[in-house]
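Please discuss these two lines.
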Amino acid sequence: MNDIDAPGRLPPPRNELLWMLWAVVAAFGTYFCMYAFRKPFTAATYSDAMLGGVAFKTVLVTSQVAGYMVSKFLGIKVISEMPPQRRAVGILALIGWAELALVFFGLTPRPWNAVWLFANGLSLGMVFGLVLGFLEGRRVTEVLTAGLCCSFILADGVTKSVGTWLLDRGVPEDWMPSVAGAVFLAPVVAFVAMLSCVPVPSSDDRAARSERSPLLRSERWALYGRYALGLTPLVVLYLLITILRSIRADFAPELWRGLGSAAQPETFTQSEMFVALGVCVVNGALVCVRDSRRAFFGSLGVCGLGLTLMAAALLGWQRGLLASFPFMVLIGLGLYLPYVAFHTTVFERFLAMTRDRGNIGFLMYVADAVGYLGYVAVMLSRNFGSKPGDFVPFFLGSGWVVTGLSVLCLASGWRYFAARIPAPQVALAPEAAT
C-alpha cells in the first residue's frame, strides 16, 4: 500500500501540524454535530406520559439505546470491513436517516413514536467507527482521538443545553429533537467534507503503529481468540463503565434534581467542559510515550486513575464533603478517563504492541456492543421513573459496584498482558556484565 492509494484521500502533507489540526477539527466537529441528532431529547422529562406503568422517558431512552446497541453489533462487521473511500458518504447517510427518524418522532402520536428513536439509534451507532477510521494507525492517534472523544463529552452537555433552550422557547417536547438536529445539518456536512480530505497514514506512521486494514469474519475472531483471556476482562471493564456513564448522561436532569440542584441550560455544558478538559489532557498525553507496550500499560493506569476518582467522588458525596457540582464533575472524570482511554489508546496501542493485522473499529465495536447490551439490560430491569426519590441512592450504589468490579477486571487484564507480552530485556554491555 502506498500513501495515496485511498480514493479521495490526500497524500501526507509536509506540514504535519497543519493536517493534524485539520483532522482534529474535522473529527471533533463531525461527532459533535452527530450528538445533536442523538441526545437533545434527554433534556425533556416527558413527565406527563406513562406506558404500562413505566415512565415514558425511560421507554424512549431504552428504545434509542436498543437501536444503538443493535447498530454496534452490526458495526462489528460493517466497520471492520468498510473500505476507506466509503466512510464519508456513510456518515452523511446515517445522520440523514437519523434526522428523518426524529421528524417522524414528532409526527407520530405517543407512545407509538418511541419506535422512531429505535430507528434513530440504529443509524447513529456506526458513526463513531467511521470517523475513527480516519484517525487510527498514526503516530499522533492519541491526540486525534482525544480531540474526537472531547466532542462527545462536550456535546453531551451542549446538546442538552440546546434542547432545554428550545423547550424554554415553547418548542413541543416531541418536536424539539428534530428541530435541534436541523440546526446542525449544514455544519455536519461541512465537517464531513473536511474529514474526507484527511490524508492516509504515512509510511512512518505504519512503521510505528502497524498497518491497519479491513478484516474478514475469520480474521476478526482469530485476532480476538489469540488474546481472549486478556481482552475479555478489559471488555467487561468497558461494559461496566459504559453502563454507569450512560445512566449519568441520559438521566442527567433527574440526577441533578436528586442531588438538590435543578440544572439550568448552562449547567450541563459547564460541568462537561471541566470533564472534557481533564480527560483529553490525560489521555492525549500518552502520545508522548513512543514505546507502544509502555503506552498500553500507561492507558491501563489511566483507567485505574479514573476508578480512584470515582471512589473518591462517591465517598466525598456520602460523607458530605462535596457539593453537587464538584461531585458531578469528579464522577464524570472518573467515568470518562477509562471510557476515553479505550477509544484513544488501549486498542490502538494493543495493535501497535502486538503488530497483529487488524483495526480499532473491530475491537471498539465488540466492546461497545457488549457495553450497550448491558445498558439495555439495566434499563429494562429498572424503572427509573417510578420512584424519583430512589434514583440518587441507586446511582451511588451502582457506582460502588461498578468501581469494585472494574478494579478486578483491570487487575486481571493487566496481569495477563504483562505475562503474555513481557518487557524486552536490555542486554548488558560486556564491561557491565563483569
